[in-house]
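Example complex used in Figure S2.
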Amino acid sequence: MNETLLELKELVKHFPVRGGTLIKRQVGAVHAVDGVDLTVGAGETVGLVGESGCGKSTTGRLAARLLEPTSGKILYRGQDISHSSRKRLKPIRPEIQMIFQDPYSSLNPRQTVGTIIRGPMEVNDINPSGGRKKRVQELLEIVGLNPEHFNRFPHEFSGGQRQRIGIARALALDPKLIIADEPVSALDVSIQAQVVNLLQELQRDLGIAFLFIAHDLAVVRHFSQRVAVMYLGKIVEIGDRQSIYERPRHPYTHALLSAVPEPDVSSEPRERIRLAGDVPSPINPPSGCRFRTRCWKAQDKCATEVPPLVRLSGNREGHLTACHFPEAPTTQGEDVVLDPALA
Amino acid sequence: MTSYLVRRVAGALVILMIISAITFYLFYAVPRDPARAFCGKICQPETLALIRHNLGMDEPLFVQYWHWLVGIFAGREFVQFGSCPAPCLGYSFATQEPVFSAIVDRFPVTVSLTLGASVVILAFGILTGMIAAWKVGQPLDKIASSSSVIGASLQIYFVGPLLAFYLVDTMQLIPRPSYVPITENPLDWFTHLMLPWVVLSIIFTANYTRMTRSQMVEQLAEDYVRTARAKGMSSRSVFFRFAWRGAMIPILTIFGVDLATLLGGAIITEQTFSLHGIGELAVRAVQNTDLPMLLGVTIVGAAAIVLLNIVVDVLYAFIDPRVRLS
Amino acid sequence: MTTVSWSGEPGTSRGPGPFLSVRDLSVEFSTEDGIVHAVDGLSFDLEKGTTLGIVGESGSGKSVTNLAILGLHDPAHTKIGGEIWLEDQELISAGRGTMEKLRGNRVAMIFQDPLTALSPFHTIGRQIGEVYRKHKGASKKEARDRAIEMLRRVGIPQPETRVDHYPHEFSGGMRQRAMIAMALVCDPDLLIADEPTTALDVTVQAQILDLLKELQQQFGTAIILITHDLGVVAGTADNVLVMYAGRAAERGTVREVLREPRHPYTWGLLSSMPRLNSSVDVPLRPVRGTPPSMLNPPSGCPFHPRCDYPKLAGPELCFNQRPSISPETGHGDACYLTLEQKRELRTAKTEDRA
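Predicted assembly (1023 residues):
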């Protein structure tokens, strides 16, 4: 990729947990994000996948500087914005926009669609040529809504249409980077595809970079050029789409891919990996490799040494894996069933 | 649990200090001088100064407050009234009796009134609310719901004399309200307080009927209630074994808040029926600019409310296992 | 070939038929906005020990259908028509007592979100045990032992201590296992699973789906699996019923429906979903428009406003007449296009895509 737009360096975000007698003090922390390195190039789409509690949403909010990191750095076009004040962030804000999961709660029900989309222009004092109203109508057209509907209220639209309004609002300021946090997971299957196609068109036509956060691996694959897999606050594997989906090395990536329910009855057999139990709590994550408590390859070393995120031999350029005992680069390996009830 | 209680009680003490300090300050903001009342019609400035000194009112405000605070735990000496053992809340400017014993004398009346009314409120309010929710949309629900609106719009000083006139004077169904100590004659205690209880609880009961009804209706739409039905539980056991617990939590919360209002209602009720409780004491203290009495009543009332709120919070943990007292 | 046939005339005599048979079911709710026609003329059968996947988007009537089987709808606002036969017992006309004896005993249900579907006020053990006590007349001790046994069978570690825990002390996957334990405690003949894995993580979803299959083999339970995800159906069900706007759009074995889908809506659903091995450079092919409002469903074929070929079957047909599923048994769909036409259209689509 050409210019690096966003760079996250050893990013950490801990949310304090309070308790104690008489005086409340911090008794622990939710290790939401625990040392994440990630870059997004201009016009590039990076997917961030993982299960609940892996910190993918927090990473997204940090990248948009809606949260302040506990430590580490957030660089936007080389400028350190990790702890920038509201004032210093102001010129950058328009360039980084967010799309949220829930198209119902992220739009103010008392504002017309026009007001909602115009909002960012007003806040940032931007006067497009031809006026704001014309720009709103343009945006509505871009996202596939009737430009005459700017006077309607969000409740007059369906879920998919509301997500389009959210997208139009994000586009209002000509952003360079959009952070999309589960943008399609609340939508019906047939509508999901419409929105994915729209986002892809925008990416292609407007050259916007995306940090695409989702739990659906097939959607992420379809949309992203590079993919990062997160587990309990850390990136366990990252690489180009083909490496992650066809030549995964981390056992967790294998488990994730094998768990995806595919609507095919005839495709080539994939390995069947069934983990035991759920993801541990991020308040007290396991020592060493965080996946070791559910991993079939775990050994003593995994409990004591945190595996570094490195390029393993046989991995392509840019394909990094954090594992002491990586799997073979295939999705057709042997079956592993750890769940006692499935033995 | 123990550490939780320790923390709550410590917090309560801080709240009580703040309340008493505010009351102290507000009293002095009132442009009336209690020393003048002692001084009589022909008041020499020297006499006034002497009275001030005897009452301890010539010292700075925070020193006076400090003396008052210390008195509660250690007792104190008054030039005017002599020694006052701990817990000392001072002497009344108006009646010259010790504030603490005055309050202790009146306490059983107000406690009987509020606790009795609480029982009526919760028992009747929840029961009628449950019936309304059980028969939602049916005539019984409509009767319960509409009568609760009427109840909520009534006033103590209107209903009190009205009921007293019909039930006591005209029909002579129940005795005239007064206070008979429960230790003396429990039956008389009960019958003589019946009317005040009913009158005090009318406006509150109505509220609890409406709340219970809406909470029950809401709970019955919850997923876990549907699960209970999917398990084959009968409608009755779904209603009484599952839904009510969820419904009781917000009701308990509101009741904790309502306790203060209830105490306010008790003051009006005491006035309406000439019962000699704390409320009467409070009203008189205000009329007479009787600072020690007013402070005493305020602090005892506040302490009661704070204490009952701790009890309510502990009750939570019993109803809802998700609430942990730590 | 595409004669309009109405399947399942109500009132036909009941010989030894399928284990569960839903005949011409209709469900209407009255709401503030008007009458919602949630289910309209739905028929399907289910054999013992098999799994039927009911697939549809929100508002397709898939959940409503199954609440109607258990009689869990609100009788004051719901009008139900048709027949539901569970062996020789008709359920729509059954009394309250009969249904209470049936629920949790012969027919059990699990729901989407195990956190809200379990009572927060009672221990897991008690919630499992009380079903057993109610239907099998077991003692408290027996019910507790049974609860522990069930927790073990669904793979909950240390069931002897977990039995006394509350739902909020369980993780999401463990809660759904407890829910399954509760549903299977009386060894039901039919289990209705309403989006049982939608609220769960991907890896946990795979565990739970496999667990359901495993338990089905042990208990011989028939399962209705309601889902919006054709992928979930592919790995779990024997037969599929695709629902659209309260009606059956397509029905058949999983293999038939996924390999040779016939209804344009099924095509749309399948081409909307990205796959792990599909080409990434071509856009997805969504279904046009949005699902219809069930307050005022479209005339004729409910799918015609979103269909790409509404005029192919004739100038008016799709707009005015409701197609029924045909043929009556086996792989069938509710569409006026001829099989020949569908085959051609589908071949054109796949070639286009390749």
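The CA atoms of residues 23 and 182 of chain A lie 39 Å apart. The mean pLDDT of chain A is 90.
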